[in-house]
Amino acid sequence: MIYIYRMKLFGAILEEEVRTNSLHKNLPAETVLVQSNSYIRAIPVVLSGSIRVMRQDEDGREILLYYIKPGESCIMSFLAGIHDDTSKVRAIVEEDAEVLMIPITKASEWIKVYPEWADFIFKLYHKRFEELLSVINAVAFQKLDLRIVELLKKKAVIYQSEEINITHQQLAEELGTTREVISRLLKQMEKQNMIGLSRNKIVLKSFL
Fold first, then answer.
1. Coil, helix or strand for 126?
2. How many C-alpha atoms does 46 have within 13 Å on its Cβ side?
3. What is the CA radius of gyration of the chain?
4. Rounded distance, CA 76 to CA 158, Å?
5. CA 43 to CA 25: how far, in whole Å?
6. Is residue 64 within 8 Å of residue 175, measured between CB atoms?
């Protein structure tokens, strides 16, 4: 559990509670951590790597809601778990991740016992609410090419690299559109020397 101590997420007493009650997991990229319509029995706290949270409609189309980064958890999983409801999102490992899986019973109990845990949850709620508003605004008011740019920038920060390994299909799924539309816009961006394209890879250039 060396990472949680280095991150100094909580005080000593709560750190010990987390250490004692959580399950430590190392998960490779593309592992589905939370499936839509499943019941939540544990919530993740990310120690390293990242997780993307997706919303899926009845037709199977998806859109990216937010990323869970080191020191964060999934507030939507937490809310579903404490209300004994099914998950309305999918959580998928973006890059190899190290996570602590905290039983939902403990996560709910700690809200009443540890003010710092309650503060952690409420801050996450506030952050995710703002991120979801940004998604709504982008879908409603922003052109798709600008949304592609913003998503690629986010991925560049996560991977700390200008080279992003991603397929056109995955990009389309995360933006809630079709592969054909994404491919056409990426070709335009390549002609403008904003990006470089190769098989399953996008290299960012001028807009960084």
1. helix
2. 25
3. 18
4. 21
5. 12
6. yes
Closest CA to 100 of 71, 123, 79, 75: 71
Tokens 């409420």 belong to residue: 122
Amino acid identity at 5? Y
8 A C-beta contact, residue 158 and residue 97:
no
Helix, strand, coil percent values for the chain (each to nearest 5): 45, 30, 25
Residue with tokens 């120690």: 47
The tokens describing 89, both together, are 């999102």
Q: Identity (one letter) of the amino acid at 116? A: E
* Cα pseudo-dihedral 93, 98, 103, 104, rounded to 10: -40
- Give pLDDT tens digits along the chain (208 positions): 444 545 577 888 998 899 899 999 999 999 999 999 999 999 999 999 999 999 987 777 888 999 999 999 999 999 999 999 999 999 999 999 999 999 999 999 999 999 999 999 999 999 999 988 988 888 888 889 889 988 998 889 888 888 888 999 999 989 988 899 999 999 998 988 888 898 888 988 865 4
CA distance linking residue 125 with residue 147, whole number of Å: 23
Total-model pTM? 0.79
